[in-house]
């Protein structure tokens, strides 16, 4: 097994998803409601991982723009479930780099009067370790 | 019929309407909600990473509690529904998560996904039945054209949540029909409202909700119903020209059953 | 004691790369019974066989062990080779050291070790082999073709033209199958019915062909050359002899021409009455009464069609009839359908009448179709100006909704549809969303390029995410152009789905009746994927058309011809050699308990009173007798026999036990 | 590999009875598709799973096999119509008797595998080997006279 394949194994383990199953049909990207916000599109996650361009993925803002709406997961015809690859990227950043996307100090000024608790909890889960 | 009830954090605060009308309606429909004592927040989103354990434990505790009571577990909030059902599926089918969570929790006997998790709407559909519900309606919502807004968390992933057809659901439409209203079917009903990105990208959620209002009102909806406090927040924040009132489904239920006052 | 020769094949490097063949030769040389052992590059080649023949003669070999590929591949070859040298062909055993050893193991030492063990097992078995004589069985010179689509029609015509009798069983009221629903065919744009109808008529008039339409195969027994088939002729409720096919009953019935039952032939785009012919060119041109939907059969009141019929052909009293016919060979040509799209809610097929499948489009464009060939939206009958085609709907899926295979014909028929639409209605814009455009085939890619270059069909790479019906009656197709990196919301007024193809759902039941193997996708399995593509592993069963796998019309027709040749090759023989590996009863051990007869699937075991001499004790006993002409050698009786009297030649108790011993040594 | 190392890892001896029409063909497909499984598995070809006499299985265990697997056509797909049904019932009885005699259920198995299921064949064999390996050497029905 090459070094790259070993790294991909790790991502496979975290995500529970196999990027090699992707056939580049783009149904995920077609379905993605956050398309306009994502610098790397959902269908590209599999190819970035396979090519070993993990750094670029980790530096992208795409991982933080995913809404976790599961549309890509639901519709993927190859069972790659791109949303899981996106989340794995987020995990890698949060775990290894501590690069949280949301700092507690930011919260007070973002708070709105009627903001539901669910929003804050979700945002902390998604944006932080 | 008694059910364990998991209200979740938001229903205790910003979404009290969702909760109180549900409780009043449950009484009218003849079933009892027993709130789980000392429940902990589900976390709002399901941790997708297959090696995430700690973040799933609060759900496991609630699920195990319901098992000990010998009751099915009801939720209302679409996020809690999503998280509880998925963690339950993990505890049933994913050997590694099951073992590690049980090792940590040290219950009297290991929890293996025995509890049945139900959304309030599923109880109405599968236990009470829409026909029975319509018989109990005292103030039918006649003439109201109501769009069901499902969002994402109640439906997907369809295989695990098993709530309804994730691409072409009909449970809320049937519900509206049972209450005497006219359901409005539109294609954005299962598209994301923008979710938690409202915190850092409020403009983006505004774009999304505008599309939802445009589509639903285009088909003639004069109001929307939802089961999700976050969808409710985002839809309410919308500045869309086509904006119409948004209700929790339980509010219309209480109205139709004539139990608004007591709630 | 046998004199056994062991021959180890290199199979080029297929075996030799992972198995040390020289070592195998060295290690088996001193096994009991072995008098000669050698290896060679290609044992199955002429030179290899020559080597075997020489060795048989030189060493007086009485048994052979060939260590090579699977016996399913070359057992026949080596048996014939033995026979050439005057050795009984059943004195040959094959040790499978390729498929079950060299190809699946990487470690040379381990693979060599296993190869030696497999060889030892085969040697041990040959030591107990006895010469067997093949029997003979007669051949019924008549073939059955199941399915009356283009595959079945062509197979039947080719067999009939060769001079043999052939019957077609078709479950629909008419032959013609899917092809009769099509408008034009790619890549030459011939009109489908113009080339199919003459063949349908020819079938009907051919002296060697008998048609059983509105009929189903109910039961199959027997074996190659001697099948007994029960065919259920469903009650047509119309007398074949009297009906003139005038069509009065359909047009002047209670609902007139309209009817109230969705027409299967027009894919529900049009209704039909309860008494109907599926289409005007139906063969036979005799209507049927769909009893489930007929008012007379439901309520006992009506009877209008019987009154109208000028020739008094309507017969409400008709009953299903079962006929039993003998056949020598059976061809499965059960064809295909498209998958159910209920699981693809994102394409809004069930919600929106203007989202249609390609077969529905065929009907809409067909001059004999529900709109008389005018392409229109089913919702408002307006002509669509902007049409989107979505490819691979349910094909190439690895989830639980779709099919894992490529349906093969969609890329081409979509290009065909696009061009035909542009030909008839040049002011229509057409967009095709594809994953890959696959056009291998003669003049195929040229055809697709013509759609792009001459007809300006817009091909966009990217699967569609969602089809969104709009309040104004239009449809928005949400997709992404992967090559240009753009999300697209394409507004259109009609969407055509290239739904995946699947084998006819009834094929599983038929395969079970025929004991023909079928794969996970319900396609029938070939005897060999490359070398025997039109034969089932079950002798006497042949495959034709989509039942075997997705294919287009020319391929279907060629396969139909190939299947016909195989059938003719079988029917041309007067006698077939039978498998000599049949059961045998040891009369001294048999206690006449009937257990074996109860488990025998072929009724090959009978009981007879025979005189036995049991160690000097002479008496009459009731013992089992095997009819070797009927016995197929499954061995069910041998394991069921409580006294060990039944044994199977070629796979005897002692032979298998000795193999077990050799492996466990 | 030295003798010492060889002793370290337990390699089970597994006998597989495969019917000629489905599972033996499935094994061939596993081979031509290069889907590997341990060399511990040795296949014996029989015409039908219904041909597998319980005697053969007892004999295998007696002679030192660690696991025995019988593969046939899927229910309903038997080339001889019913052989696999008989095998299924017969083996259910035999296996429960073997368990009574101390041969764990994990050492015996009946599996259906069609001619088209090379992947399933390989997967089944890998799983079965793993299982038998985890149970260790079979000593309970060994004929002591046949062992060194």
Describe the protein in words.
The complex is a heterotetramer of chains A (129), B (263), C (665) and D (148). Chain B is α/β, with parallel strands linked by helices and 263 residues long. Helices cover 44% and strands 11% of the residues of chain B. Chain B folds into two domains: 119 residues, Glutathione S-transferase Yfyf (Class Pi), Chain A, domain 2 (Up-down Bundle), CATH 1.20.1050.140; 125 residues, Rossmann fold (3-Layer(aba) Sandwich), CATH 3.40.50.1860. Chain B has eleven helices and eight strands. The model of chain B has no long low-confidence stretch (mean pLDDT 93). Chain C is α/β, with parallel strands linked by helices. Chain C folds into five domains: 123 residues, Rossmann fold, CATH 3.40.50; 177 residues, 3-Layer(bba) Sandwich (FAD/NAD(P)-binding domain), CATH 3.50.50.60; 61 residues, no CATH class; 166 residues, FAD/NAD(P)-binding domain, CATH 3.50.50.60; 66 residues, 2-Layer Sandwich (Alpha-Beta Plaits), CATH 3.30.70. In chain C, 27% of the residues lie in helices and 25% in strands. In chain C, the strands form twelve sheets. A five-stranded parallel sheet of chain C has the order 10-7-6-18-29. Chain C has a five-stranded parallel sheet with strand order 20-27-21-22-23. Chain D has one domain: Ribose 5-phosphate Isomerase B, Chain: A (3-Layer(aba) Sandwich), CATH 3.40.1400. A four-stranded parallel sheet of chain D has the order 2-1-3-4, sandwiched between helices. Chain D is globular and about 35 Å long. At the B-C interface, loops of B face strand 24 of C.
């Amino acid at each position: 097994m090459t070094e790259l394949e070993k790294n991909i194994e790790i991502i496979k383990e975290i995500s529970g998803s196999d990027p090699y199953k992707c056939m580049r049909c783009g149904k995920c990207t077609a379905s993605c409601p956050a398309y306009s916000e994502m610098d790397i599109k959902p269908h590209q996650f599999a190819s970035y991982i396979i090519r070993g361009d993990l750094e670029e993925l980790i530096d992208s803002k795409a991982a933080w723009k995913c809404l976790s709406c599961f549309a890509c997961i639901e519709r993927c015809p190859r069972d790659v479930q791109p949303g899981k690859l996106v989340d794995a990227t987020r995990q890698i950043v949060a775990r290894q780099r501590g690069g949280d996307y949301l700092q507690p100090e930011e919260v007070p000024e973002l708070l709105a009067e009627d903001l539901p608790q669910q929003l804050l909890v979700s945002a902390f889960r998604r944006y932080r370790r | 019929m008694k059910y364990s009830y998991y209200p979740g954090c938001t229903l205790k605060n910003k979404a009290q309407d969702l909760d109180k009308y549900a409780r009043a309606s449950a009484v009218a429909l003849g079933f009892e909600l027993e709130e789980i004592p000392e429940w902990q927040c589900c976390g709002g989103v399901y941790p997708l990473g297959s090696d995430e354990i700690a973040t799933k434990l609060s759900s496991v505790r609630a699920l195990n509690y319901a098992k000990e009571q010998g009751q099915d577990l009801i939720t209302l909030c679409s996020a809690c529904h999503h998280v509880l059902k998925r963690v339950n599926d993990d505890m049933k089918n994913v050997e590694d998560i099951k073992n590690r969570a049980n090792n940590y929790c040290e219950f009297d006997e290991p929890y293996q996904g025995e509890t049945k998790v139900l959304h309030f709407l599923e109880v109405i559909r599968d236990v009470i039945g829409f026909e029975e519900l319509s018989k109990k309606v005292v103030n039918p919502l006649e003439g109201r054209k109501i769009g069901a807004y499902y969002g994402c968390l109640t439906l997907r992933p369809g295989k695990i949540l098993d709530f309804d057809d994730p691409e072409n659901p009909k449970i809320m439409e049937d519900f509206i029909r049972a209450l005497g209203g006219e359901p409005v079917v539109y294609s954005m009903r299962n598209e994301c409202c923008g979710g938690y990105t409202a915190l850092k990208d409020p403009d983006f959620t505004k774009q999304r909700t505008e599309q939802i209002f445009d589509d639903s009102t285009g088909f003639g909806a004069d109001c929307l119903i939802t089961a999700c406090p976050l969808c409710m927040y985002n839809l309410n924040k919308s500045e869309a020209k086509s904006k119409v009132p948004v209700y929790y489904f339980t509010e219309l239920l209480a109205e139709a059953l004539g139990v608004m006052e007591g709630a | 004691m046998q004199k056994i020769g062991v021959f180890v094949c290199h199979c080029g490097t297929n075996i030799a790369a992972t198995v040390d063949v020289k070592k195998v030769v060295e290690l088996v040389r001193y096994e009991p019974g072995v008098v000669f052992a050698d290896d060679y590059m290609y044992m199955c080649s002429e030179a290899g066989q020559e080597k075997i023949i020489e060795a048989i003669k030189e060493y007086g070999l009485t048994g052979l062990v060939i260590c090579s590929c699977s016996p399913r591949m070359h057992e026949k070859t080596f048996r014939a080779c033995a026979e050439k040298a005057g050795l009984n062909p059943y004195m040959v055993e094959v040790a499978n050291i390729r498929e079950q050893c060299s190809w699946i193991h990487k470690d040379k030492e381990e693979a060599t070790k296993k190869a030696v063990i497999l060889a030892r097992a085969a040697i041990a078995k040959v030591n107990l082999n006895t010469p067997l004589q093949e029997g003979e069985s007669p051949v019924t010179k008549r073939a059955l073709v199941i399915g009356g689509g283009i595959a079945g029609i062509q197979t039947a015509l080719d067999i009939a033209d060769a001079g043999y009798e052939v019957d077609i069983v078709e479950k629909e009221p008419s032959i013609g199958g899917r092809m009769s629903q099509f408008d034009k065919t790619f890549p030459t744009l011939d009109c489908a019915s113009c080339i199919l109808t003459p063949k349908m008529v020819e079938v009907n008039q051919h002296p060697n062909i008998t048609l059983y339409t509105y009929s189903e195969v109910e039961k199959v027994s027997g074996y190659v050359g001697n099948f007994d088939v029960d065919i259920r002729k469903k009650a047509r409720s119309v007398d074949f002899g009297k009906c003139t096919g005038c069509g009065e009953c359909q047009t002047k019935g209670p609902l007139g021409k309209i009817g109230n039952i969705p027409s299967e032939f027009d894919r529900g785009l049009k209704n039909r009455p309860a008494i109907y012919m599926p289409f005007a060119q139906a063969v036979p041109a005799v209507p049927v009464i769909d009893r489930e939907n007929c008012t007379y059969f439901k309520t006992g009141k009506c009877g209008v069609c019987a009154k109208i019929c000028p020739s008094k052909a309507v017969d409400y009293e008709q009953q299903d009839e079962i006929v039993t016919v003998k056949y020598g060979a059976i061809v499965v040509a059960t064809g295909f359908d498209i998958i159910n799209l209920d699981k693809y809610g994102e394409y809004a097929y069930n919600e929106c009448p203007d989202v249609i499948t390609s077969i529905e489009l065929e009907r809409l464009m067909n001059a004999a179709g529900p709109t008389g060939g005018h392409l229109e939206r089913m919702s408002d009958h307006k002509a669509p100006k902007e049409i989107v085609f979505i490819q691979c709907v349910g094909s190439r899926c690895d989830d639980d909704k779709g099919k894992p295979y490529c349906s093969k014909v969609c890329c081409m028929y979509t290009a065909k549809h696009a061009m035909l639409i542009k030909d008839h209605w040049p002011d229509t814009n057409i967009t095709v969303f594809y994953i890959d455009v696959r056009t291998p085939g003669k003049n195929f890619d040229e055809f697709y390029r013509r759609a792009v270059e001459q007809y300006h069909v817009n091909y966009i790479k990217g699967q569609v995410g969602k089809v969104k019906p709009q309040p104004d009656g239009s449809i928005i197709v949400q997709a992404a152009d992967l090559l240009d990196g753009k999300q697209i919301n394409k507004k259109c007024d009609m969407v055509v789905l290239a739904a995946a193809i699947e084998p006819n759902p009834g094929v599983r039941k038929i395969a079970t009746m025929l004991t023909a193997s079928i794969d996970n996708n319900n396609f029938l399995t070939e005897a060999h994927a490359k070398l025997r593509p039109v034969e089932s592993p079950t002798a006497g069963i042949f495959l034709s058309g989509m039942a075997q796998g997705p294919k287009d019309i020319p391929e279907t027709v060629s396969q139909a011809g190939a299947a016909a040749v195989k059938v003719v090759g079988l029917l041309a023989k007067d006698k077939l050699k039978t498998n000599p590996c049949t059961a045998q009863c040891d009369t001294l051990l048999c206690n006449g308990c009937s257990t074996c007869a109860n488990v025998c699937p072929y009724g090959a075991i009978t009981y007879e009173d025979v005189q036995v001499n049991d160690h000097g004790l002479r008496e009459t006993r009731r013992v089992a007798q095997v009819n070797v002409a009927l016995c197929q050698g499954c061995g069910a009786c041998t394991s069921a026999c409580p006294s060990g009297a039944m044994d199977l030649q070629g796979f005897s108790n002692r032979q298998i036990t000795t193999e077990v011993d050799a492996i466990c040594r | 590999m030295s003798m010492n190392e060889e002793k370290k890892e337990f390699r089970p001896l597994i006998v597989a009875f495969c019917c000629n029409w489905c599972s033996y063909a499935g094994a061939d497909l596993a081979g031509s598709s290069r889907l590997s499984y341990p060399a511990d598995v040795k296949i014996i070809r029989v015409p039908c799973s219904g041909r597998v006499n319980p005697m053969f299985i007892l004999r295998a265990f007696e002679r030192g096999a660690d696991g025995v697997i019988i593969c046939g056509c899927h229910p309903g797909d038997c080339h001889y119509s019913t052989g696999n049904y008989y095998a299924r019932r017969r083996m259910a009885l035999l296996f429960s008797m073997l368990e009574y005699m101390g041969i764990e259920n994990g050492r015996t198995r009946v599996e259906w595998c069609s001619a088209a299921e090379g992947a399933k064949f390989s997967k089944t064999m890998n799983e079965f080997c793993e299982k038998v390996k985890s149970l260790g050497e079979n000593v309970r029905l060994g004929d002591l006279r046949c062992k060194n």
